[in-house]
Write a structure and sequence with these properties.
eight-stranded parallel sheet; alpha/beta; nine-stranded mixed sheet; binds zinc ion; globular; 455 residues
């Protein structure tokens, strides 16, 4: 039977290896991988000479802020930026949309908005706060990909942090669903105490913000959770979100070796920007946990290379330029969050594959295969095997280019990555066999993205 599309002459990279192959697509699905030149029959040919062919990237940590904060981002601009960055599936966080995704009604509302405005497929996180423990079952039935809690102030008053007893109660619930439980892990008491202290001392400098969230806050919070899951013998997976420190990865590795059911995520900014960059860049590089030392960045890469990191995602957390400018003279006033979904793949390729010899299959494992598996979307997503959705990135591994403001599809076109020189660029992105991005242009209209239920 004639395929709809054949992608020819490229080098296919999956989580387990790379090889030259032609790839055929029919009815939105991958139908086969063939030796180069073996198959000629197809309606349309995509020539991928000199290109790498990846399964679509899955970004399991984004904040599109819709409904409620559409001026910050939104599903349309967020998923356009994703497509331009080779991302074909996102999982949107329960905040900073307003209302937050804390019950059935808000989940259904977000599903409808996502379907209406997305150009890629999407899953949704449900929130778990002290206020909605009775709603978790409904969120699970609604197909959420996982649940998220904050161990410290979330930045949004309506999304409350949890304390230890609530963690235990929520965990008991989630254990019944066998879904991922994602945690923002920083010690609330220390962060609170130090933030107030430095503000009382009239410190408004950027270093004051870094000092208010020292390494001990992340290490303590993660260690405490590990203590509980050892005691409670939990069956669900605890997923430590946006871990910033190599020391924390070491703590997590020890627990994994003892059989704890945990996974860990880090982000492009912790792998490519430092505390010194933050002091220069200011508000646009403010995030929590904050950026760390150059030495930590190098050490974190060692852990990426030795397989200790399960997932790399962007934690794309945009806002308006006004929310950032407020903090120009007083860092406490700036919104904390970094825009990075569009540049994640080139940054990790450049810093990892080009600079540090990270094997490309390992990149695909952390950015496509592992998230698909963890969140229950495999093998529909995260794979190039016949029968999988034809979500494909055609990537030029040799192009050297500068990240520029004008090329960004974000609603608010700023990012700490602007000006960075990177090697490797997305040429073309296909969602279920359809070209949605090509050489700087979006080729799809909103409304084609599907909601992915996680069962
Ligand atoms: Zn986040």
């Amino acid at each position: 039977m004639k395929s709809d599309i054949i992608v020819k002459n490229g080098r296919v990279v999956t989580h387990y290896g790379e090889f030259n192959a032609d790839l055929t697509i029919r009815n939105e699905k991958i139908t086969g991988l063939f030796s180069p030149g073996e198959k000629e029959n197809s309606k349309e040919i995509i020539d991928a000479t000199g290109m790498l062919i990846f399964p679509g990237i899955i970004d399991s940590h984004v904040h599109f802020n819709e409904p409620g904060r559409e001026s910050w981002e939104g599903f349309e601009t967020g998923t356009m930026s994703a497509a331009a960055g080779g991302v074909t599936t996102v999982i949107d966080m329960p905040l900073n949309s307003s209302p937050c995704t804390l019950n059935k009604k808000e989940l259904e509302r977000k599903i409808e908005i996502g379907k209406k405005n997305s150009i890629i497929d999407f899953g949704l996180w449900g929130g778990a706060t002290p206020d909605n423990i009775l709603d978790l079952t409904d969120l699970n039935k609604g197909g959420v990909a996982g649940f998220k809690s904050f161990l410290c102030y979330s930045g949004i008053d309506e999304f409350k942090k949890i304390d230890d007893p609530e963690f235990i109660e929520i965990l008991n619930q989630i254990n019944k669903f066998k879904k991922i439980y994602g945690l923002h892990s920083e010690n609330d008491d220390i962060v609170n105490y130090l933030s107030k202290k430095y503000q009382r001392e009239n410190r408004v400098d950027r270093r004051a913000y870094l000092d208010s969230r020292p390494p001990i806050t992340e290490k303590e919070a993660v260690s405490r959770i590990i203590f509980y899951i050892k005691q409670l013998k939990t069956s669900s997976v605890i997923h430590f979100l946006h871990i910033s420190l190599s020391d924390t990865i070491e703590i997590i590795n020890k627990a994994k070796n003892l059989g704890c059911n945990i996974t860990v995520e880090t982000c492009p900014h912790y792998l490519s920007l430092t505390d010194e960059d933050f002091e220069i860049l200011g508000p646009i590089a403010k995030c929590s946990p904050p950026l760390r030392s150059k030495q930590n960045v190098d050490k974190l890469w060692e852990y990426v290379k030795n397989g200790s990191i399960d997932v790399i995602s962007s934690d794309h957390s945009p806002c308006t330029i006004k929310e950032k400018e407020k903090g120009q003279e007083n860092i406490w006033k700036a919104w904390g969050g970094i825009s990075g979904i569009q540049t994640m793949l080139p940054i990790i390729f450049s810093e990892g594959v080009i600079k540090r010899k990270l094997p490309i299959p390992q990149l695909i494992k952390m950015m496509s295969y592992n998230p698909a598996k963890l969140f229950g979307f495999y093998p529909q997503k995260g794979s190039l095997i016949p029968g999988s959705d034809a979500d494909i990135v055609i990537f030029n591994p040799n192009e050297k280019w500068i990240i520029e403001k004008d090329g960004l599809f974000y609603k608010n076109k700023f990012s700490p990555f602007i000006g960075k020189v990177v090697t490797g660029r997305v040429e073309k992105t296909l969602l279920r066999g359809r070209v949605i991005y090509e050489k700087g242009e979006i080729k799809a209209h909103k409304g084609i993205g599907k909601y992915l239920r996680s069962e």
